[in-house]
Amino acid sequence: MGDIIRAFIVVSPLIWVPITLAAEAGPVDVLILPFEISGDADPAFAQSAHQKLSSAVANHHRIEVLAQGEAAYHVKGHVHADNMRHFVGLTLLVAGTGKVLWFENFDYVGITPEMMAEDLIQALLAAPPSGGRE
User: Fold this and answer.
1) How many angstroms separate the CA atoms of 118 and 101, rounded?
2) Which of 88, 93, 133 lies closest to 109, judged by CA?
3) Residue 27 needs a FRET pair 20 to 30 A away by CA distance; which of 15, 65, 88, 93 works?
4) What is the pLDDT of residues 54-113, one digit of tens each?
5) How far is CA 40 from CA 81, 88, 132, in A?
6) Interatomic CA distance for residues 42 and 49, integer angstroms
7) Rounded (5°) CA angle 74-121-96
8) Quick one: fold of 27-129?
């Protein structure tokens, strides 16, 4: 976890209130695996959703999306289509152990990769540092 910073906040000239701030931890590294497809899912749709999600997550200043190699976390995605409606499932796993930390299913109607990225980013930032291996 990040370092703890202890400080005081002045509420009034006569009252000092102690507060504790967590220092921002280092970057979180993640490997977003290519999405699996099933049903009537279009492979081009799955590839596009994967690229857009990866790009949106990579835009966060504390997350590094790796193209390959060792990462603390892996994201597995699955795209299923039924009657021209796409569903996307995302699972956040600890690399090496496969422990599931978070999963969500999205109905792609009205949901964008950027909206899915917001949920994934929150899960990554809440995950234990280095996959809990420290």
Assistant:
1) 16
2) 88
3) 88
4) 999 999 999 999 988 899 999 999 999 987 788 999 999 999 999 999 999 998 788 889
5) 5, 13, 38
6) 11
7) 20
8) Rossmann fold (3.40.50)
